[in-house]
Design a protein that fits this description.
Strand order of the largest sheet: 1-2-3-17-9-19-4-7
Largest sheet: 8 strands, mixed
Strand content: 25-35%
Distance between the termini: 40 Å
CATH class of the largest domain: Alpha Beta
Order of helices and strands: HEEHEHEEEEEEEHHEEEEEHEEEE
CATH superfamily of the largest domain: Clavaminate synthase-like
Number of strands: 19
Shape: globular
Bound molecules: N-oxalylglycine, manganese (II) ion
Length: 297
């Protein structure tokens, strides 16, 4: 055990499981845990570590299966049914909770969502009234290069926010446009946005309080067509640009390079994520679950 690992596993809540930080910004790897065989006591420790680190990585999950992914995910909370993909399809027979994220096309049919392109920084489904608490992603087939998933620490981004910017967002809300997904595809039935003040989408506070940790975090959702409610559009655009320029600094994020058998779980209440593009001829297949959330406050 390195001294860093020791200092983390000694550090109170994570006691009893071994953790290794993956970056200074966010995230920890949980060592020696088989997610297919987690009991209540172990889950409590995992959950405490997750509250501390916002994102957990579990490697070499040889016993992982759709069943195991769903049953571990149920410990985290109530599962969402997988939303239909860009073609309006659902994916895994017998597991309506599992969404496939993949670029692979077999016999003319896309196995999953998001293709091979970049996905921008976002929080999952920020545009609905009760955005999901968490998502879990299991790497089944991963490309040699590219397709890394980045995570950004929204507690830290808020803590460091210059005082003048903080004063400008105190008590304010963002309207979160629901017309496109994180890969930029226009959702079924959605129309191209021409006026950010009137396009449909949920309104949430820019500073939210995490319901478990009690810590405040910045909640930006995603940049495209966002609008700070009550401001003239020009002022809203300028304020959002300033907030994003501050937030997208390297010191707040970490990118995960996938190996087959990795499982990541992230907390949408304190982390944003994105994905690098990858070679479209490479195969990337991930199975994913999503935990229902509550209205951000
Ligand atoms: C997601 C997502 C990123 C990835 O599943 O919500 O944004 O790396 N995926 O595929
Ligand atoms: Mn996402």
């Amino acid at each position: 055990m390195t001294s860093l690992e020791q200092s983390i596993s000694r550090g109170g809540q994570g006691d009893g499981i071994r953790l290794r930080p993956v970056s200074d910004a966010i995230g920890a790897e949980v060592l020696d845990v088989d997610l297919a065989a987690v009991d209540d006591a172990l889950f409590d420790k995992i959950h405490a570590a997750w509250m501390d680190h916002c994102v957990l990585l579990f490697r070499n999950q040889e016993n992982m299966s759709d069943e195991a992914l769903v049953s571990f995910s149920r410990r985290v909370g109530t599962l969402d049914q997988a939303p239909p993909n860009e073609n309006g399809k659902r994916f895994v027979d017998g597991f309506p909770e599992i969404l496939v994220i993949s670029n692979v096309v077999e016999n003319g049919v896309a196995l999953g969502s998001l293709g091979a392109g970049e996905s921008v920084w976002h929080t999952d489904m920020n545009y609905i009234e009760e955005p999901p608490t968490a998502s879990l992603l299991w790497g089944m087939e991963v490309p040699e290069t590219g397709g890394n998933t980045g995570f950004l620490n929204m507690y830290k981004a808020l803590e460091d926010l210059p005082a003048d910017l903080r004063a400008r967002i105190e008590g304010r809300q963002i309207k979160h446009d629901n017309s496109t997904n994180s890969a930029g595809y226009l959702r079924e039935g959605a129309v191209e946005v021409t006026d950010v003040t009137t396009c449909p989408g949920a309104v949430h506070p820019i500073i939210r309080t995490h319901p478990v940790t009690g810590r405040q975090a910045l909640y930006l959702g995603r940049r495209r067509n966002a609008y700070v409610v009550g401001l003239p559009v020009e002022e809203s655009e300028e304020l959002l640009d300033a907030l994003w320029a501050h937030t997208e600094q390297e010191k707040y994020y970490w990118h995960h390079k996938w190996q087959v058998g990795d499982v990541l779980m992230w907390d949408n209440r304190c982390a944003m994520h994105r994905r690098d593009p990858f070679d479209a001829s490479a195969r990337r297949i991930m199975h994913r679950t999503q935990i229902k959330g509550t209205k951000p406050v």
